[in-house]
Structures are given as C-alpha cells and as structure tokens.
Amino acid sequence: MPEPRKRGRKPKPKTQTQTETESESETIMPGTTKNGTVASHSLPATTTNDSRSTSPARRGRGRPKKMRKHADNSSNDNHNSANNTNSNVGHVASPERSRHGEGNDITILPPRWESVAVKAVPSMDAVVKVFCVHTEPNFSLPWQRKRQYSSSSSGFIVGGRRVLTNAHSVEHHTQVKVKKRGSDTKYLATVLSIGTECDIALLTVKDDEFWEGVSPVEFGDLPALQDAVTVVGYPIGGDTISVTSGVVSRMEILSYVHGSTELLGLQIDAAINSGNSGGPAFNDKGKCVGIAFQSLKNDDVENIGYVIPTPVIIHFIQDYEKNGAYTGFPILGVEWQKMENPDLRISMGMRPGQKGVRIRRIEPTAPESHVLKPSDIILSFDGIDIANDGTAKALCLSGGDHIHATAVVPFRHGERIGFSYLVSQKYTGDSAVVKVLRNSEVHEFNIKLSTHKRLIPAHINGRPPSYYIIAGFVFTAVTAPYLRSEVLVADINIGYEEIVNTQVLALNGKPVRNLKSLADMVESSEDEFLKFDLEYQQIVVLKSKTAKEATSDILATHCIPSAMSGDLKT
User: Fold this and answer.
1) Could you say which of 42, 123, 134, 168 is catalytic?
2) What is the helix (H) or strand (E) element at residue 97, kind and residue range?
3) Pairing of strands 200-204, 187-195
C-alpha cells in the first residue's frame, strides 16, 4: 500500500550552494561579522551601572528578517570587509549562535564578553565606595549624642595615598571604611581633614594592600560650556559602580548647601542621586574636572546636578598641604551694591570710564574692617578691574604651581565671573591690593585676608556643642545648627518652664560676652542673687547658694555627667 501523501507545500530541491552553506559550522561573535571584524555601530553609546546588556535572541519561525542598510558609512574598512564575506555590517548576534547540519536547530551559547567592544571610563578603578557611621550631637541635650546611623557615598583616589570625598559624607563620623571596585574587602580609613565650606573631605588608608594595583586620578582644566562630563559613583539602586553622562550647562558662583557659603560651581545635566556624593566627574580625556556634591530637587526641573570644580578642589588640597590642616576660604567681609545707574555713579563722584561696586556694609569681624568704609567704591581687586555689576573679566589661565595675581581667574577669553571668586582663590593670611574711590579720590589698601568669623557659627566642625547648667537652666552657645536655652524642670525654677530660645544679655548688670564668660561669672559670683537679664525685657532671679546646691541634684536626676562642657573647663 502506497504511503499516504503528506499535506503541505512540496519542498524545493536544494542547490549546491545552499547545501555547502548549511554543512558549514559557523559561529557569529557578538559585535563582529563572520570574519571577526568589529561592527562599529553595534553597541549602545553609553554604558551605565557597569552592566553590559545584550538584546535577547530572536525566536520564531519563518524567514529571517532582512537587515536595513545603515546610512552611516563612516567606516569604509568595515564596509569593504563585510562585502568580501557576504555579511551584513551592523548585524550583531546577542548570544553566540551555531547552526549544525541541514536542520533548523539553534544552540544558544553564552556570550564571550572579552570580544565585545565596550566604552570604558578611564580611571574608573580609582573610584571607591565610602561607608560611614555617623553620630550627630543632640543640641537639645548637648551633653549626649543621638543614635548612630550609617550611610554610603563615593570617593576617589588621588596622589599621596589619599582619598577625596564630600564633607557631608563623613560629617560627625565615628567610623569610616572604603572599598575598591571589584573588591570584597572594606578598609578602615582615617579622616585627615574636612573642609565644611567647600564640602570636601580628605581620607587616607593605612593598609598597604588597599593601594596595590590602583593609579590616582589626574585633574584636568576647568571645562567649557557644553563639554561632555561623566559622573562615576555608587548611587542608590545597586551595589556596583554607576556611570551617568551629560554636559556642562552652567558655570557660576553657587550656594553650597552644606557649607552655607558661595563658591564656584558647575551645573551639569547628568543625574546625581543619593550615594553619588563624592564621586568624580571626568572629561572626555579621562581627567577629573570636579566632585559631585548636590542636586536640585524640584517638580519643575529634571537632571540638574552640581559639581565642585577643580579650582576649589586644588585650593582645598594646597591649603591642607601648606598648613597641615584646612584653614578655609578667605573673605573680604563686605556687602556691596551695584553701580549700574548713571545718576548713582555721578552722585558718588565716579568719572566716565570708572567702574566698580559700592560698599554698603562692612562686617565687624571682617579682616581689616577699620580700613574700608561704607560708601567706598571698590574699583579693582589685586589689579583686576571690577565692573558695575560686580563681575570681573576673565583672563588667561596661567600654568604651573604659582599663578600670578593678574592671571588668577582661570576662565576662557570673554567670560566673566563674580569678583568674590577672586577673593576665594586667595589663602588665609595672603594680602591683596584693593583700590577704592572715596570722596572722588582713589586710594589703595594692602589688606590681609582671613576666613569668615561669623558671630553665629554655621557649623561646629565636628565638636560637641558647648553648654552650661545652673539651677536647671541649660545655656548653650548660639550656633546655626541649633539655638536653645532649655529648662530642666525642678522646684527651684518654678514659673520659668516656658523660657526657651531666649538670648541672655547680662548677669547682675554685667554684659555677657559668650558662654564661657557666663559660666565664669556665675561660678565666681558672691552676690546673694543671680539676676539674668534676657531679651524681650524678661528677667530670671535665683538665690545664688540655693541654685548651686540644686544643680547637683538636677544633674543626678537627668544622668548628666557635668554642669558644663569640657571646653569651658579650660
């Protein structure tokens, strides 16, 4: 009996060429043509999170989809080589495929990543992950600290066996550890210096093993607008290194949130998330042009990050190397007014062609505050003219370790920057020549610069807060992190429980200069009563002997080790 005929289309006889082709065993490498030529446009332009993904293998039956010809014929060598082997340039198999015999079976082999061309960021191995345990002071109860908490951020290795990161990454640290890329070991780190104003910290590691096989990051020049930057770090969302790319979109004097100051900064459109802090920003040559440190979070904006530029970083490092500790960025200590109105310039005695800004207030703690006067017109700073809007014209970038005063502004030709940048490029103890117009006469003053001494400190620089306790009243120094004068309830202070956040003006008619003077005045008082004059015309009166006796019982009740902080005992 004849075999029943199978339904379907009758197979066509195979040609000799098809038979030879199917009998060959061919393997197509990811990112290559059959002869091993790398397909130049087969990979994504940017690799992030250190992950290399491949497209999934195409499944299904039927004829293979025809590949479109690429419009980009920039690589003539690849194009000609592909034509010689009858292969399509740009066709990339994600996993390896092997076709055997005449059947349609496909064997999926694991990809060989060593053959894939991947865009690598130079100096990436010098980027480390920073682990820190923080213990913040308790400003409400200044004799103790808050509960510990942990955080992770980024950093990178620089010359001299040192690591740079952000100051806020290791603020109030009790333990700091660092881990290199690809390592499973965390190394104990020592904090060498913290620059609160510029939000930079310098670390080191004693273990020699940490420094093996890694090269320090090199610093590049200040980038121009629209220059490409790559931010590398360890943000939230994963444990491996992450890479984000963008361009420099703005360069100006920025507000440093952590430092409560204003310094030069770069704005970029690359994402900077929690954990990116302290990571380097590389240019297209693989050199570091800044440190990621903050971002703008707002519903109206996206991907706005800020980078500490190299001039600020170099200033911090050289300050530490010169003085053995961070001394800060000096200030001129003046508040000024623009002189853009022509009538205002005439009234101040300015001649045509003269430009500058008017001093409207001088801080009492400013360096050489007795030299400059309100209504002085600042014409130039260290030989650099100041415009009516308070900006200075950019000059050339001078090379070498020592920059001449007339070439202190490292910007490209034609750009301007706020003249406060000129002051910030100086070091504590440096002198500067300030030219002013006073009563229509030009004067020059040689002013010695120093750091900003605030009447109310913005930071306590890692030290515990100072305090003094008498009769249940807790007095503490005025600082920006917290201002408080709190009452520990006891029989002796009945009626005073609601006195909080109140400034102390005098004790027994004598002005109180600071917290230490208050403690000394109370301890040495021989008067029968202690009379505290407070703001808003409030007073507190206590019997001296009774108040001192009650203080010991109050300290024991609240488990307070001492009536005053250690810095007040010296």
Assistant:
1) 168
2) strand 96-99
3) antiparallel
- Please tell me the distance from the alpha carbon of residue 133 to that of residue 131, in angstroms, as a whole number: 7
Query: What pLDDT digit, counting tens, does each position of 319-369 carry?
Result: 999 999 999 999 888 889 999 999 999 999 999 999 999 999 888 877 677
Name every residue whose Cβ is closer than 8 Å to that of residue 25 and which is 6 or more positions away in sequence: 98, 99, 100
| Predicted confidence (pLDDT) at residue 281 exceeds the cutoff of 90 | yes
Q: Which residues contact 114 (CB under 8 A, 6 or more apart)?
A: none
Give catalytic status of residue 168 as yes or no: yes
Q: How far apart are CA 182 and CA 45, in angstroms?
A: 24
* Amino acid identity, position 207: D
Q: Please choose, from the candidates 106, 116, 14, the residue with its C-alpha nearest in 3D space to the C-alpha of residue 55.
A: 116
Residues 6+ apart with CB under 8 A from 113: 52
d(CA 404, CA 395): 11
Residue-level pLDDT at 190: 96
pTM of the model: 0.69
pLDDT in tens, 510-546: 999 888 999 999 999 999 999 999 988 889 999 999 9
Does the annotation mark 553 as catalytic? no
98 is known as an active-site residue = no
> 380 pairs with which residues across the strands?
385, 435
Residues, the chain, total?
A: 570
Question: Which residues fall within 8 angstroms of residue 467, CB to CB, at 6 or more apart?
Answer: 142, 143, 474, 475, 476, 477, 515, 564, 565
Residue 400 has what pLDDT?
35
Which residue in 169, 277, 420, 424 is the catalytic one?
277
- Assign residue 235 a region (left: φ > 0; alpha: ψ between -120 and 50; beta: otherwise): beta
Type and span of the H or E element at 422: helix 420-424
Distance, CA of 18 to CA of 32 (rounded, Å): 23
Residue 321 backbone dihedrals phi, psi, to 5 degrees: -65, -35
- Return the half-sphere exposure (C-beta side, CA atoms, 13 A cut-off) of residue 401: 4
Mapped onto helix, strand or coil, the DSSP state of residue 545 is helix
- Written as one letter, the residue type at 368 is E
Query: What CA–CA distance (Å, rounded) separates 97 from 108?
Result: 6
List beta partners, residue 96: 109
CB 400 within 8 A of CB 391: no
Sheet holding 539-543, edge to edge: 510-511, 504-507, 529-534, 539-543
- What amino acid occupies position 82? A
Q: How confident is the model at residue 24 (pLDDT cuts 50, 70, 90)?
A: very low
Helix (H/G/I), strand (E/B), else coil: 196: coil
Of 418, 423, 421, 447, residue with least CA distance to 435: 447
Please pick, among 134, 154, 173, 199, the residue that the annotation labels catalytic. 199
C-alpha–C-alpha distance, residues 556 and 561, integer Å: 8
Contact status, residue 428 vs residue 411, Cβ threshold 8 Å: no
